[in-house]
Design a protein that fits this description.
The complex is a heterodimer. By secondary structure, chain A is mainly β. Chain A contains eight helices and 40 strands. The radius of gyration of chain A is 25 Å and the shape is globular. By secondary structure, chain B is an alpha/beta fold. In chain B, strands 7-6-8-9-10-12-13 form a seven-stranded mixed sheet, sandwiched between helices. A six-stranded parallel sheet of chain B has the order 2-1-3-4-5-11, sandwiched between helices. The longest helix of chain B has 17 residues. Chain B starts with a helix and ends with a strand. Classes of the chains: A mainly beta, B alpha/beta. Chain B: InterPro entries: ABC_transpt-TYRBP-like.
Chain lengths: 692, 311
């Protein structure tokens, strides 16, 4: 702490005028710096849906000193980024809605779903996302099915990457940090004849914080079956090695984007919540997205289409150690450990087209059609176990290929056809009603229709009020239905889709140029929730079930304030209360109270100082988990950036968890990882950027 | 030491291409080195200059604290004929140059800085004629435009505004004030007498368009009285002004280069003094437009490059 404080003291001595005379002239022409970005083409705003909760720009991300998407998303009111035990995969916990794999949040990159068919989330080998190439993140925390389809259940996160207009020349960067973290990136924008391009590549490696896990699922198995196999207390296996590459080509109304992601990830606290120092995930994702838009096909008619292809594979260069050497079951002892490598290959095609019509006075109509071919075309499993009739694993002498005999899942395929209609209807000069309706036809789950209503009243020049209603439907992911001999989570062919209905009200008030406030209140009802529940037989993992209904309500307050002298403050406060309808108790896991404060201070033209405070509180245990509630925590991050005038380089130092507080995310009930999932201790990183 | 620091900060990005002038003539751009996002404004202007010049014009980045005299002295040795000076920093250096070097300036609002140095200045202030044309196309019923201005910041612009209004058949009430208090009184008088055919124009005048006292008042009163409020500042559109014009940086760069090339070719016609900006984009507040009852056809919307707010 002493070094940052010293740096702060030095900065205070050199306080300079925050805005130069140069910038004053530009501010008189363009307004504030955010509008300069928009006017110079680096942050073209979309016409947003009325329900958008937050838009975070590249400038916001830089001010935060963030290096990964998950650090950024924590600032969104109503959203908390939790962790899953295997690979420490992020769980975007929205408004009290929690589950083991978090398929309830739809993540899009430039409008293309990042969803994997196996689990329904971004993939358990997601491994984060670098932020250097992100132009803007749009977050909506309410049912988005009428706009984005049935997977947009608890929320939608759309990541818009930097395009040709966002990059003025090239940029190279290097980041070195604690725990062996090394990142390097390069991006460039420019022209190729009549076309424009943007290219990005990043390599990142790290050994991970390797926090200590005091007791794990094998500790419980040892106590149950009288063995001594657990590796706990032991370290997390959370190293990573990643590649990201993007190519974006634009020619008139055409856009072609290619995106590649490769991840090699450690197994976190273990796929079955038993420490696994050996297992290695390897996921590879390639997305190609071709789109075309014409704003004036005819005077009142706009049109567009998009065709995307996604290929995703999940492989294990080193099989997962499900339980360690010496694990004993009534069915036998695994002398070398219990291993499995459930590998999948997916191919997803998505085609959509739309027409927009504004020929009717006071109406903006948009109609669209789409078709998706979602094919998990290959599965492969290496393992050294079979199953007894009671679900307990039987040791086999070696790790062999069981793909054709008893794999964890057979290939599965699903198609979805849909149509939607949306109307922005101007009822009166200050009243707009948005009506949306989307019908989806699933090849395996039949039909679903989801409406969305939004009434917006522009009450005063600086005050807007919104009332929103939306419904959503989430078809089970393939593993929730079809996983057949999985020692961690088994599928359930009888499972029903989960549904959600949300009512929401929001006030947005801008009392002055430098102050903006937003207050939202929501109430929702979830039905037929799909969750894993522990199997009756110890040591046999969990099974997906419809676990009943959940209701919730909450308040979210967010605001931004520029008090002057180069200081920018961003605040969000969220409170939610949820109820599991079958038990009448809290469903647990999600924080009931969440506060975030960002102070970004441009001390002088060359120096920028940032501080973030994140308070996560009120995480109760779900029914059936007798442990005391998860301890609240407060995280403090500090950042310092120096960009000398006239120089093409900048340097930044980032101190995360500056107070080195003990922070934990809840483990699954009933608490095999007794002391939950520890988060990283204090870490320091230094970043160097060079523009050319 | 100070001079060394100035060179360190200001001249390091000097491009090796310097000296490969245009057909033996000497042209260079002096522009301010500032951080993002403002840097992008000048980057786009530079792109426009290069496009029109059909080559990469030598450029010198000047830091705010650079020693202008030292830079000017160095530039004298380069035998320049024309300099494109961008921003206040660029103008400061240009002011210290040999009077034989022609200066084409851009990227500032007020011509005051250019007065010290006979220059052709393309201001960042949108041309009043273009502003009032937009107003007439959106609200044909408007007959009278009121603007409160200070002579120090805006007298030069009003000299362009009056004939523009006459050309469009509008009455321009340009109310001159010397202090904020008087400006507030003029705004209050305007609202006391305002009729539906009135519109209010906010110029880029820091004295009469105060962000904390004037802007909330005029935004609220115009909203409540259904009066058209337009501005020369894009930021006001996000706050609730009906529309604004803002610089088209690429086109501005092309215009600056055209003017500089004309001077290199010793062509007449490069006007001295400040010219309002004609290379503009337009922004519309659809929320305010809807409040005023304007029917925004797709064609009207497409005539604006930016629609705000981003709802």
């Amino acid at each position: 702490m002493s070094k940052p404080l010293l740096a702060l003291g030095l900065l205070l001595c050199g306080l300079a005028q925050a805005q130069s005379s140069e910038e004053q002239d530009l501010a008189l022409a363009f307004g504030d710096s955010a509008l300069v970005s928009i006017a110079t083409g680096s942050a073209q705003p979309l016409r947003r849906a009325p329900a958008v909760a937050a838009v975070i720009t590249a400038a916001d991300i830089e001010a935060m000193g963030a290096s990964d998407l998950d650090q950024v998303l924590e600032r969104v009111p109503g959203l908390h980024v939790g962790r899953g035990s295997g690979t420490y995969t992020p769980l975007y916990v929205a408004r009290g809605i929690y589950s083991q794999f978090n398929p309830q949040i739809l993540m899009l990159q430039n409008g293309v779903p990042m969803t994997t068919l196996l689990v329904g989330n971004r993939g358990n080998g997601w491994g984060g996302l670098p932020v250097q190439h992100i132009a803007r993140i749009e977050v909506m925390l309410s049912p988005g099915s009428a706009l984005y389809g049935s997977d947009a259940y608890a929320g939608v996160i759309n990541i818009v990457t930097k395009g040709p207009r966002d990059l003025h020349g090239g940029e190279a960067g290097l980041r070195l940090g604690s725990f062996g973290a090394r990142d390097a990136w390069l991006q460039q924008g420019g022209k190729l004849g009549p076309a424009e391009y943007a290219a990005f590549v990043q390599r990142g490696r790290g050994k991970g914080a390797r926090n200590l896990v005091e007791a794990d699922a094998q500790s419980f198995n040892d106590a149950t079956f009288g063995s001594h196999a657990s590796l706990a207390p032991g370290a997390l296996n959370n190293g990573h090695d990643s590649w990201d590459a993007n190519l974006d080509l634009a020619l008139e109304g055409w856009r072609w984007r290619i995106n590649y992601k490769l991840r090699e990830l450690g197994t976190g606290a273990g796929i079955s919540q038993a420490l696994d120092p050996q297992g290695l995930y390897r996921t590879e994702r390639l997305v190609s997205d071709l789109s075309w838009q014409q704003a004036a096909l005819l005077p009142d008619l706009s049109a567009g289409f998009g065709l995307s292809a996604l290929h995703y594979s999940q492989q294990f260069p080193r099989p997962l150690q499900i339980y360690p050497a010496g694990v004993r079951f009534p069915t036998g002892v695994f002398a070398d450990g219990m291993f499995g490598a459930p590998e999948t290959w997916e191919r997803q095609w998505r085609l959509h087209a739309y027409l927009g019509y504004e020929g009717l006075a006071h109406h903006k109509l948009r109609a669209g059609l789409g078709y998706e071919d979602l094919d998990l075309y290959r599965t492969r499993e290496l393992k050294n176990f079979a199953f007894a009739a009671n679900g307990l694993p039987i040791p086999l002498p070696t790790i062999t290929d069981h793909s054709d005999i008893d794999p964890f899942m057979r290939p599965q395929r699903r198609s979805v056809a849909y149509a939607y209609l949306q109307d922005d209807w101007q009822l009166a000069p200050d009243w707009t009603l948005t009506l949306g309706l989307r019908h989806d036809r699933y090849s395996d789950f039949g039909n679903t229709t989801n409406p969305r209503l939004a009434l917006v009243w522009e009450a005063a020049y600086n005050l807007s009020a919104k009332l929103l209603y939306g419904q959503a439907f989430r078809a089970p992911a393939f593993n929730e239905q079809y996983s057949i001999s999985n020692p961690v989570a088994r599928g359930n062919p009888a499972i029903r889709p989960e549904t959600l209905a949300t009512r929401e009200a929001q006030l947005i008030w801008q009392p002055g140029r430098h102050l903006q406030l937003s207050l939202a209140a929501f109430e929702h009802r979830l039905r037929d929730l799909i969750r894993t529940t522990p199997n009756a037989q110890p040591g046999t993992g969990t099974t997906f079930n419809n676990t009943g209904d959940q209701s919730g309500r909450g308040l979210e307050l967010s605001g931004s304030w520029d008090p002057g002298a180069g200081l920018h403050l961003q605040l969000s406060l969220s409170q939610q209360r949820s109820r599991d309808e079958s038990s009448g108790r809290s469903p647990g896991y999600a924080p009931r109270r969440h506060a975030y404060l960002l102070a970004d201070w441009r001390v002088s033209e060359a120096w920028q100082l940032g501080a973030q405070l994140n308070r996560v509180a009120g995480r109760e245990r779900p029914p059936g988990d007798v442990r005391p509630p998860v301890a609240d925590y407060t995280n403090v991050d500090l950042s310092l950036r120096h960009a000398p005038q006239g120089a093409r380089w900048s340097v930044a130092a980032l101190l995360r968890n500056a107070t080195d507080s003990d922070q934990r995310e809840p483990s699954l009930a009933p608490g095999r990882l007794v002391n939950d999932l520890p988060l990283a201790p204090r870490s320091l990183s230094v970043e160097l950027d060079f523009r050319y | 030491m100070r001079q060394w620091a100035a060179w360190g900060c200001g001249v390091l990005p000097w491009w090796p291409a310097f000296g490969q002038g245009l057909a033996g003539d000497r042209l260079a751009v002096i522009y301010p080195e500032i951080g993002e996002p403002f840097r992008a404004v000048f980057a786009k202007i530079l792109e426009g200059i290069d496009e029109r010049a059909q080559q990469r014009v030598p450029r010198i980045a000047v830091a705010a604290d650079a020693d202008a005299l030292a830079l000017a002295s160095e530039l004298r040795r380069r035998e320049l004929k024309v300099v494109i000076a961008l921003g206040r920093a660029g103008l400061r250096v240009a002011t210290a140059l040999d009077p034989a070097i022609e200066v084409v300036a851009g990227g500032v609002i007020s011509p005051n800085e250019a007065d010290a140095r006979a220059a052709t200045l393309l201001s960042l202030a949108p041309d009043p004629l273009l502003l009032m044309q937009r107003l007439k196309s959106l609200q044909p019923g408007v007959k009278r435009v009121t603007v409160v201005y200070s002579p120090r910041h805006s007298a030069w612009l009003m000299r362009h505004a009056q004939p523009a209004a006459r050309q469009l058949g509008l009455e321009l009430r340009a109310l001159e004030v010397d202090e904020l208090k008087s400006a507030l009184r003029q705004y209050q008088d305007f609202f006391a007498q305002a009729a539906p055919q009135d519109a209010l124009w906010l110029p880029q005048d820091p004295l009469t368009v105060d962000e904390s006292a004037v802007l909330p008042l005029v935004l609220q009163e115009c909203w409540n009285r259904n009066l058209a409020l337009f501005s020369s500042n894009l930021g006001h559109v996000r706050r609730g002004a009906l529309f604004s014009l803002y610089p088209n940086n690429l086109e501005l760069g092309r215009s600056l280069a055209s003017s500089a090339l004309a001077q290199l070719a010793r062509q007449a016609g490069a006007p001295r003094g400040a010219q309002p900006l004609r290379d503009v984009h337009a922004a519309l507040n659809t929320r305010t437009a809807s409040h005023l009852g304007l029917d925004l056809s797709p064609q009207v919307q497409r005539s604006f490059e930016l629609l705000l707010p981003e709802r």
